[in-house]
Structures
1.
Amino acid sequence: MQSLEIIGLIAGACTTFSFVPQILKMWKSKSAKDISLGMYCIFSTGVILWVIYGAYINSLPLMIWNAVTLLFVLLIVYFKLRWK
Amino acid sequence: MQSLEIIGLIAGACTTFSFVPQILKMWKSKSAKDISLGMYCIFSTGVILWVIYGAYINSLPLMIWNAVTLLFVLLIVYFKLRWK
């Protein structure tokens, strides 16, 4: 694998899995007061569009990274609605 | 502009500007208790790598969207450190 591909892979892993600490924090504290619902709704919309864009240009990494991100982000939306 | 480019443009705008409502919420409440510092540190790293990746592949949109995102995300990190 070329160094360029590795950079793209690590970049995608970081921006996707960065949501895990936020999920764990909310899960432990059962609190979501400071979380912006607006942010995660807009972000979800963007991520869905990235999946569609990825499908159009036949980019499997773009589709997979964004699909996984969407799962994490929707979980944060659910926690926010549950714990306010 | 083709519909494909428009989808990519809206996707980028959503995932970049989604952080604005979070910034405004923190600014108004002066509170950041539920925000995960770990999330924003890992996300910043990812975004920096996307800028580098964008530079390598000569993708100006990738560089610009991620550079703007980085500004927003670093502001959230600053607020988090300031208001805990």
2.
Amino acid sequence: MPVEGVRVVAFDVFGTAVDWRTGVARAVAAAAARRGAAVDEWAFADAWRERYHPALGAVRSGRREWVNLDRLHRESLDELLDRFDVGELFDDRERRELVRSWHRLPPWPDVGPGLERLRADRTVAALSNGGYALLTTLAKHAGLPVDAVLSAELAGTYKPDPHVYRTAARLLDVRPDEMLLVAAHHWDIEGARAVGLRTAFLERPLEKGPHGLPDRAVDVTSDLAVTGFTELAEHLAPPAAA
Amino acid sequence: MPVEGVRVVAFDVFGTAVDWRTGVARAVAAAAARRGAAVDEWAFADAWRERYHPALGAVRSGRREWVNLDRLHRESLDELLDRFDVGELFDDRERRELVRSWHRLPPWPDVGPGLERLRADRTVAALSNGGYALLTTLAKHAGLPVDAVLSAELAGTYKPDPHVYRTAARLLDVRPDEMLLVAAHHWDIEGARAVGLRTAFLERPLEKGPHGLPDRAVDVTSDLAVTGFTELAEHLAPPAAA
């Protein structure tokens, strides 16, 4: 049965729309080659992403003032380069370049065609913990067809804080139940449900690599469970006439 | 001599990118026909726009808390319908429809091709006093090729308050002098210059109709004076390699 009344499709970005692991690992491998450093790029990418939740949590809990994701990425990068014993080989310029690899990530193949289709009859927005500039660059670089970029930065905190979802709905002037969040992570789906958004869990079996343990649809409660953005478009009822 | 170092082209919307007068007058004429009301649609559109600056000024000065442009448009519409002696013919639904005519305005013909060209090698953003939802709908409806929508709503005040331009540069993570504002109004150009943005005055001889008095390039101090977005693209130096 199609889900009705959805005026805005808001989608999570890292993991849900783009393959951060491949994009970051490639950038790490290229930088390591330039610097003559021996680094397992996949292990490095995984370790970098592992620091994501603790770093965001410090801001979300109020233990730390708002800083954007670029800054958090830089801090965890500095720590990781030392832990991988290659700190002395990467200067500031190379580190800045690595932080920017999160601005240029490859989309999963279903994203472009799926968003294009969704966008034909409703508003499509990125809703991510990435900063506003990061998301703007990422959407442009990946050629994502979006109508709006809704960064957590606009709320001054991070998902799954309720304020992020509510700010998104307010800015697009829709009720929470007129906005559907698409995400590959249970905590994001739960955060959206808690403030009354509709939700679509999108399973990304390869998000964390061939041996990773991504979230699975069977473990997540959501209005819809889909395997890609194209399939999502099939599950939404056409919008009612304005 | 081309202007160098511009990473973001931010453009004003009403008058600069879209022909508000024609769009609004058509909507007023259609509504008047539906309601059997005799209204000079061009005079009505002009009078509606005349209320723009006083209404925004109340928020900018702090005399009034933040309200978005839709709300201000509705208040001035209610007043104007009475002044045009047709108030009793327009119910709430029709009034809401008229307010939404500001979300669906025709672009000037140079805008699509010009923005497409500008967007090929830098970030292009709408920077308007229209609300975030209004601008998102307007850009989508008019098919404007933009990378970002930067509403004054994100700053909680209206142009030419310096906070609006500074918020835009901060969100896109550029220095003020790396952002160029394109506008057809002297007060907007002056506001942008005051905080260190680069500026391009774009003359729109027909913005206020065949007998109107639009701002003229000869009266405005700006880095560039152009007659359209396509010409603007010719005046910007290619971006330096990152």
3.
Amino acid sequence: MTITGEMLIGATALRGNDRPIHAVEAATGQKLEPGFGGGSAADVERACALAWAAFDTYRETSLETRAAFLEACAEAILAIGDELVERACAESGLPRGRIEGERGRTVGQLRLFAATLREGSFLEARIDPALPQRQPLPRADLRLRQIPLGPVAVFGASNFPLAFSVAGGDTAAALAAGCPVIVKAHSAHPGTSELVGRALQSAVATCGLPEGVFSLLFGSGAVVGQGLVADPRIKAVGFTGSRAGGTALMKTAAERAEPIPVYAEMSSINPVFLLPAALEEKAEALGKAFVGSLTMGAGQFCTNPGLVLAVEGPALDRFIAAASEAVAAAAPQVMLTPGILQAYERGTAQLAGSSRVTKLAEGQAAKACTGSAALFSASAADFLADPHLQEEVFGSSSLILHCRDLAEMQALAEKLEGQLTATLHLVEADTEAARALLPTLERRAGRILANGWPTGVEVCHAMVHGGPYPATSDGRSTSVGTLAISRFLRPVCYQDLPAALLPEALRDGNPLGLWRRLDGALGRH
Amino acid sequence: MTITGEMLIGATALRGNDRPIHAVEAATGQKLEPGFGGGSAADVERACALAWAAFDTYRETSLETRAAFLEACAEAILAIGDELVERACAESGLPRGRIEGERGRTVGQLRLFAATLREGSFLEARIDPALPQRQPLPRADLRLRQIPLGPVAVFGASNFPLAFSVAGGDTAAALAAGCPVIVKAHSAHPGTSELVGRALQSAVATCGLPEGVFSLLFGSGAVVGQGLVADPRIKAVGFTGSRAGGTALMKTAAERAEPIPVYAEMSSINPVFLLPAALEEKAEALGKAFVGSLTMGAGQFCTNPGLVLAVEGPALDRFIAAASEAVAAAAPQVMLTPGILQAYERGTAQLAGSSRVTKLAEGQAAKACTGSAALFSASAADFLADPHLQEEVFGSSSLILHCRDLAEMQALAEKLEGQLTATLHLVEADTEAARALLPTLERRAGRILANGWPTGVEVCHAMVHGGPYPATSDGRSTSVGTLAISRFLRPVCYQDLPAALLPEALRDGNPLGLWRRLDGALGRH
């Protein structure tokens, strides 16, 4: 494949007329060719028109057709071969092993949704048969299924050029649900985006689907991004990025004549609670492992552990010593983009300059394009006194909070904003302390971990990658795992519809062999 | 029981200090005693503090405890006896048979949610066991359940003083989910609200639950209504009412530091499509039955058939003749409130005054406090030319649209706003015409009916009472039926949590006997 700098609108490829975007080699800051011409309002219009035209056909394709399509997407991505890995490494600065792993995750995610389609219970089929003899009034025949919302706009994320971008989690979930997808590529990795986009475009053609099922646009947030969210044919939005970016999309979506759901994953500092007995027993090992999680991928994970809470005392001092030593030894790492590096340096400088914060350690000196890990501490009281200390610093920066006692730790947990994750380190003697914290953590986070680290998000059935605002714009949902398909669905009820018109999922005799709820009882009936 | 005019805040009853609200006897316009003192910001604060204090305890009560509580609510409502029926009839002007039926529905709804709790699959328990040997990385133990969002503010509806008010659908679903509820009573039926509120308050006490599980406030929309929606401890809102009221609450909810979901059911004209062969075969019977649905309960249903579409011709003329005759014979009916009557008269006067609209018939002359049914017609082209004609007129008013052909009918359907329902009348010869319309109707409505009328919403498993904006603020949800519990839930994932800390629903050995998803497979395991 050759990267051309073209957008993919349905079955066509065309060069945008707006000022071209160039990718930058993350490790060197050098401009990569070609330029990617930015899209215009007319390009948004064309992509939306095609997506809308495709919707009714695509959403009624069989479960097997959509499953085979997702598998074809996976195959086509793999078929790009090493060119994809090399380009993604160049654009993101992430090491080859990580990109290869991320490709595996992306492909695995598409295949997992294929299996979810074949299993079919996401349709939530329900049948309450007619009761013509019921007194005082008969009951009609009522049947329910979930249908897709409509075309979805997906915004590629900077930090996962494959798994949260063109063919990432939201795209896979939306396509599985039966929604056409229009991706706005992240300007940090347009070449990677084009390669993956062409793979999806070819899978649409191979599978004989309407061309509007998938489009890929480049361009500005104002024209292409906001243009997509404002278009009346777009019915939901998936976004991973900054809080400012996410809230701007939420505002546009809420102000439409028909407001639509926005699933924006925005900001999380992922508190880690070191409970006393665990800290006493494993302070050094925890300190070292913590820095492993903190510095993984240059800290550029939504689930990076940006806050550590523990009760002050000698055990915490040991943890800090071990963590500081590990941070000091940490090599600088290439960051995704110059903008992200600048924001990281600004964030750590602000922490370092705060009178409430002590700088504990920093990693080896940064060279061009790299960031150094940074570790800070503050008292719980000082943390609460300055709301800025709760802001995410995207990168390998973390803040350790000294709490006077468990009560202060618990009170602080109660004041935290919504989070993607909350982590407990505990041994058996900490059980009661953990039990006291759990209700607060459940109210504050989408995932609660014990004796692990929040980086690393398994793609499976029981995953929740989501959480209360501002971790996400809609805490009722997850962006990772098979439950993510639900975010792009809505229920429709059919009352007394003649058999010839009923969707296959709801027909008598259960032709699809689905799990269905018959008068409320689950079964394959 | 005696109606005192007091609010119920947790276990206490107290009189609000704001200007008292008086109920009005709907049939006479006469003021009913006592006055209901309006709540203040301090009352909102107290109710929210109690609800918040109750939340962690209430949400972890057993499924059986919550089921028994909902049943106790039902029993306590029935135990009020005839006083409740009489007061509700007086305040609403609805006939005794309707109010008795509505009481049965309210009680049945609470009991259905009790059964839903005992069945337990709304928890959506998922377990992906650890895979310690997996290469290249082991998998952690991951478990998911749904937990309640938090305290919910419920706004009583004018048109269902029992089934959509203090102990109505949203309250039942929220309490079932594990959310404390604060109801703002509708000022049209404060006495009914107090009676039902006292029943719920007594059930809370009888069941030994924290007092903050339920509170009932009277007062103004500005102080009590907006105050509740703005309070940071309120995590979701249920509302049934006008589009202006619903959008005002949406705005407040979106502007909070932490935006929250609003489930507002606002406005729907419930289009009815008379397909040609059915119309030819049954024009007169359809005309008569249509008016039966139109005038039921003085047309004061969210699902009232406010729009009828058919292809012009002799069959439609016969339908119109029969419907006009039935409307002309319709007795005037007491309307819920003077305000609703005025809005109805304003709406029908506007239709009558429109140059695009022909008045076909009106019901028998109205007396004080009553409204007369009204029937209008227009061409499809004129309807599309004036967006005001698509606005809901709450009451027994409907507009019949002449379409030139099926293509125009379909084009018009595509232009309709989101609806709660869409109805098809068809016989076998209409199957292809119906098939062509269905995709549009699925995109536009929450429930699609064949050969029936949209009034009458069954409380069951397969019901959807919801639909795209502006029918509701959130088309991903239903306010009626057991699926409504989902609107008050969000998923949480537990990773490697020690067995002692796991919620019972997720423990090994399935102690609750739930349907769970194990590595993706549903079963009672």
4.
Amino acid sequence: MKIETIAQNIVDNSEKKLKEIYFVACGGSLVDMYVANYLLEHESLTLTSGWFTSNEFVKFPPKRLGKQSLVILCSHSGNTLETINAGKIAKKAGAQTVGFTFNEKADLLETADYSYIYDWGNEREVSNNPMALIMTLAVEVFERIEGYNNYSNFKEGLERIDTIVAHAEDLVQQRAKAFANARAGEKIFNIIGSGATFGQIYGFAICSLMEMQWLNAVPINSAEFFHGPFEVTDKELPFILTLSIGRTRSLDERVKKFLDRYAQKIEVIDAKELGLDLINESVAEYFNPVLFYSVLSQYRKALANVRQHPLDVRRYMGKVKY
Amino acid sequence: MKIETIAQNIVDNSEKKLKEIYFVACGGSLVDMYVANYLLEHESLTLTSGWFTSNEFVKFPPKRLGKQSLVILCSHSGNTLETINAGKIAKKAGAQTVGFTFNEKADLLETADYSYIYDWGNEREVSNNPMALIMTLAVEVFERIEGYNNYSNFKEGLERIDTIVAHAEDLVQQRAKAFANARAGEKIFNIIGSGATFGQIYGFAICSLMEMQWLNAVPINSAEFFHGPFEVTDKELPFILTLSIGRTRSLDERVKKFLDRYAQKIEVIDAKELGLDLINESVAEYFNPVLFYSVLSQYRKALANVRQHPLDVRRYMGKVKY
């Protein structure tokens, strides 16, 4: 079923007018939902939205969860127990549910009123990755419930993002290799960004570096940097800083100015230089994380190569009981 | 003006019925607001709430911000520019504003319809620290707008928390010293907790360790730990784990079980053992962060002593321009 059709069905089949949209998942899938929640939190006049790690949602769901709620769930494997349980709780409360997964036999689909099996592996078709798909579903529902004044610009952005990302991936290949060579021996990174991008900042820290490379990483919001975290800055500590397109860009630029002066190991990834300004400025910032996910994936791939630590090696996940 | 009076005035003077409460601050003050937002997000059927770092709120305020909104601001010094600007934007949109500060001549007070100058320094009167005060204001408004079924239990909790915290602070003195002696040479910590406590997990990382000790620290939600971060676990990496009272406790216990097996440098701080279960279980979990803030402050004090790095030393904040 197409995303637009799912959105239409949700609205048509709702017993009560939708009032809340909850985004519920764990780890990398939760990361991918940050931007959809960010968009609704900033743009909607009527919809309440929430971003929950599955097990917190399971242990303590919001009291308002009910027939007027939509719960969007995502599990790449489709069998993440916490997310399946979150789906059960949502259903029991009367909410409508949508499950996103890569696995067409996923247990998650049993608790989902609607399901979307996404493709995976074609890195150049980011408009079909879970991040873009979930954001699109949020926008399609938002458009139908309330009307989104930048709806057509958003849809146009979706049509352009694949080309922008493909171009950006090519552009950063050499930089990513140089970064990996220079930073192969580091044990800790500070990852910084703002606005809609922050989900990917958190995600690059916990998934790409901690999970896939067993390296510690601190995710920091650019707007928070000068209120504590910046005191760790010195010439030895490596930073990765994203410069987003959009309303929070000046916050990232302020961090850059500081780091240029007091740090030395700085990798800056600039959405503007990478071509994201080809998307209409009313919506471009929501595509920052889509771009940064793909570009940062080139960095982690390069790092994994140089460190001879393949991205799929785990010591606990799927190896031991916990 | 008493918190109850401020709440009553807000409700009485509201041109439109309150629909949103936003918590806006930076760094340590933002940390202190996490629990108030968490409480409303979970308990309220009608109020939308949001937790924003000031400069993100300034650059991109939610579109719904208006006469039906309440914006609660906090700046310890009272002169945090980003938070003052957030107050101006809230006022311009027609929202009501409350400013919390320690400084009675604070610039923040100029953009605040209501102000609360809190005391500071009496570590044993936590019911009057900004965290408890802001949560109390949120509860008092919530009670008046919608009714909070655990209101009287919450008020009773406020009466008990000072005694519990004082007792807990005494209890952890020796442990904090032992922790500081054992961990004085570490450069990176993972800080873990869940639920209402997570604000303090983030705060201990960015303020107590990064800002005050120039040590890197990764804040991790217990519910997220097994979805990425746990792959960094080994016997060399130091962990600080809070076991909260309440609905998310089992998530913390799951982390403890894992760490007991695969890590060695583990400091566990248990709200139950420290007496938080003296508060009615319907509201006890909201007092976790109040307890943990005070208890963790003993740990940071001990660490600062052993490391001979006083808590008020800065190299950038107030020293250089940025």
